[in-house]
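Action item from last meeting closed. Structure (58 res):
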């Protein structure tokens, strides 16, 4: 498993998150949320995102 901390690209597969949420962001919206976060860490399995942490700041 690899980890990246800022160099996001749209090739990431952001599917499978928010399961069961009645209203959830699309993969593109999820990507934009992560990209625009103050700080973000992504756990990757190849190009597939298997976990993420994002931090917001004011």
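Sequence:
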């Amino acid at each position: 498993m690899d980890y990246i901390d800022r160099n996001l690209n749209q090739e990431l597969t952001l599917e499978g998150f928010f399961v069961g949420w009645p209203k959830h962001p699309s993969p593109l919206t999820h990507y934009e949320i992560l990209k625009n976060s103050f700080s973000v860490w992504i756990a990757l399995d190849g190009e597939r995102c298997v976990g993420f942490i994002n931090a917001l700041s004011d």
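Note appended to the action item: Residues 1-11+23-38 form one domain.
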